[in-house]
Every structure is written in structure tokens, then in C-alpha cells.
Specification:
Strand content: 15-25%
Shape: globular
Distance between the termini: 46 Å
Radius of gyration: 19 Å
Protein name: Glycosyltransferase family 2 protein
Organism: Geomonas anaerohicana
Strand order of the largest sheet: 3-2-1-4-8-6-9-7
Helix content: 25-40%
Structural class: alpha/beta
Oligomer: single chain
Length: about 325
């Protein structure tokens, strides 16, 4: 779906760090869109990491080369805040200035139709309190197809996403409410599956303890605490091109690495009911969240091995 120059007025947010290669590709997608407002959030280099300060500078230089009519806002950290703290504080900063935005990390490469898809649904569900966000990825691999352009899910994937200030204000980034949620059995009610609830309870305990440095899990818990749902497109609109040794959370490629994208057909076909697509959520659970505590332990072990291999310990 083509867009005339200067038309795209939904704010775009780019979250960057130390990867000029992937940053350049994602920024090219944003440049072709020519948004009127661009918010740039960058983390600072870590102490003692050889060459990282230069890579951070290169990434920042790429995204500030704006050659179209655009209001550019920057929030560049001078020191390293870490993934969780930098993303959450950056999104806080964005929603201190605007009411809605489309958000891309530096390794999430969107199909061009991702942007008008998000824009239309940001408008459609702007005042719908049951919807937390719009996601860009579809991890169904051809399963659970519907005749609609998207479905609703309990899982709020964030490899390319959009949301509103009214939803983000519910984010409990410090997980203040987690102990009470855990003790009350809240997850059993919302997830409607004791295995899901047990899996996520253990993961969230690790997140709260700092063993998993994740802003996304904190955002997920916040959405669940308020019973919110996420829009998932019927086709995959975003490809994560950042798998590899330079990645924070995805050091080893798997089936989710560099997934192909497809165009979203317009006009959009909207679901008749605002309720989760149970079959799709069950597939997500089966394929992504099935082996706690193996998955977090394996990822942690792999991160340690890669850091040793590349001299980053």
C-alpha cells in the first residue's frame, strides 16, 4: 500500500544500541515512509566493551541522517542503562509527548504495509480499553488461518508494535504488583490453562529477580493484570534480522530468525468479536513457551558462551 510523501503522521519510534548494520536496514524502511515525527531512543555503550562506543556512535549517526521534512526528537543515553531500563524509560519519554506511536527496535525490519496496518488499527481501537497494542509478527507458520486480517491474542509480541499512551500508562515496570498477582492466582484466570500459568509464574519470578533482563515480560504482565489483548496480523509483517552473537536475547538463530514477510491486503477485514483466538494462542504456547525452565537456562548458557567466545565477559 503506497503512501504519498508527507502523509504518514503517526509518530515512529526507533530503539537503537550498538548495531549499525541492522539499524541501517530498519532506518531505510522508515526513510521510505517519510514520517512527520521520529523519536530516536539509544542506549549508551557498556564500560570495558572494546569498540562498542564507536558502534553506538555509528548507529546514532545513521538514524539522525534525516533527509525529509520531519520533526526529530532524540533521547540518547550517555551511559549504558541495559535493555530493560533503556526501553522502558525510552517509551515513557515518548508517551510523555504523544498519545500513540509505532515502535521498532534496531533489528526488526518491517514490510511497508506494517505501517498503514498499525495506523488504521491505532485509530480503530484508540478508545477501546480491552486492546493493549498492535503487533507486527505472526508466529503461526501457516496454522490457524482465519478470513480476517488479524486476530486477538493474550500474547503481546513486540518485534515491531504499536500502542497508545492510555495503555502504556498501565505498565508496571518495577513489577510492584507481581507478588499479589502470583498469590491471587491471577494467571490461572486470565490464561485459562494451568500449564501456561505455571510456566509464566516461574518466568516472571526470574524477571522480577533480575535473572532475565526483560522489559517485554514486564509489559506482558501489566497487560495480563488488566485483562488486555493484542492484535496479531494474519500474515507476518516484521522480520527479526538481529539473531547472532551481537544480539542481547537472540544469540543463536532458530525458526524465528529472519522470518519472511508478506504484504497485508487492504481494505482490512475485522474480526466480529473482540476475544482471543484460542487455537492460535494454544499453538503459540506449544511452540514457544513449552519447556520451562529449559528455555531460560539454555538462553542464559548460550549468552555466556557467546560472550566468552567474543571476549565480552
Amino acid at each position: 500500500m503506497s503512501l504519498p510523501a508527507w502523509e504518514f503522521d503517526t509518530p515512529i519510534v526507533m530503539l537503537i544500541f550498538n548495531r549499525p548494520d541492522t539499524t541501517s536496514l530498519v532506518f531505510d524502511a522508515v526513510r521510505r515512509l517519510r514520517p512527520r515525527q521520529l523519536f530516536l531512543v539509544a542506549d549508551g555503550p557498556r564500560a570495558g566493551r572494546e569498540g562498542e562506543a564507536e558502534r553506538c556512535r555509528e548507529a546514532r549517526a545513521i538514524v539522525t541522517e534525516v533527509d525529509w521534512q520531519c520533526e526529530v526528537y532524540t533521547d540518547f543515553a550517555s551511559a549504558n542503562l541495559g535493555c530493560m531500563r533503556r526501553v522502558s524509560s525510552g517509551v515513557d519519554w515518548v508517551f510523555g509527548q504523544v498519545d500513540e506511536a509505532i515502535i521498532l527496535e534496531d533489528d526488526c525490519l518491517p514490510h511497508p504495509t506494517f505501517f498503514p496496518f498499525c495506523r488504521e488499527l491505532l485509530d480503530r481501537y484508540r478508545h477501546e480499553p480491552r486492546v493493549a497494542q498492535i503487533a507486527g509478527v505472526n508466529f503461526q507458520f501457516g496454522h490457524n488461518r482465519t478470513g480476517d486480517s488479524y486476530y486477538f491474542s493474550r500474547y503481546n509480541h513486540v518485534w515491531g508494535w504499536a500502542t497508545w499512551k492510555r495503555a502504556w500508562l498501565m505498565n508496571d515496570n518495577e513489577m510492584v504488583h507481581w507478588p499479589a498477582c502470583r498469590e491471587s492466582g491471577m494467571l490461572n484466570g486470565f490464561l485459562a490453562d494451568r500449564k501456561q500459568a505455571a510456566y509464566w509464574s516461574k518466568v516472571l519470578d526470574l524477571v522480577a529477580a533480575g535473572a532475565i533482563d526483560s522489559w517485554a515480560c514486564r509489559w506482558t504482565l501489566s497487560c495480563w493484570r488488566h485483562g488486555l489483548l493484542t492484535v496479531i496480523p494474519a500474515v507476518n509483517l516484521v522480520s527479526n534480522i538481529g539473531f547472532g552473537p551481537g544480539a542481547t536475547h537472540t544469540p543463536v538463530a532458530n525458526r524465528y530468525a529472519a522470518m519472511p514477510v508478506e504484504p497485508m491486503p487492504f481494505p482490512l477485514r475485522h474480526p466480529a468479536a473482540l476475544e482471543p483466538f484460542t487455537a492460535a494462542d494454544r499453538y503459540t504456547l506449544k511452540t514457544q513457551y513449552r519447556e520451562y525452565p529449559l528455555i531460560p537456562r539454555v538462553l542464559a548458557a548460550l549468552r555466556i558462551q557467546w560472550r566468552k567466545l567474543w571476549g565480552r565477559e
